[in-house]
Design a protein that fits this description.
This protein is α+β, with helices and mostly antiparallel strands. It is about 40% helix and about 20% strand. The radius of gyration is 13 Å and the shape is flat.
Length: about 70
């Protein structure tokens, strides 16, 4: 894979935990970068009525938009 990839994960995600479902992508995709969306962010915080981190949707959305602007312009 040669295209840039950015991966975000939630530190409290028990559905797709970092070690099992994120780290392998970061380890095996040479163009992948990533960062935690926060230590308390759960899998469902992007659609939950009461997210652990109420700003996570906006923050990760801004980071995604910045990634695309850097890579697609």
């Amino acid at each position: 894979m040669r295209v840039p990839v950015e991966i975000h994960w939630g530190g409290a995600d028990t559905v797709n935990p970092y070690d099992v479902d994120v780290k392998p992508y970061l380890d095996h995709i040479p163009t992948a970068t990533g960062r935690s969306a926060g230590p308390d962010v759960r899998h469902d915080d992007f659609f939950a009525d009461d997210p652990a981190d109420p700003d996570v949707r906006h923050r990760v959305g801004r980071e995604a938009a910045a990634f695309f602007l850097r890579r697609l312009v």
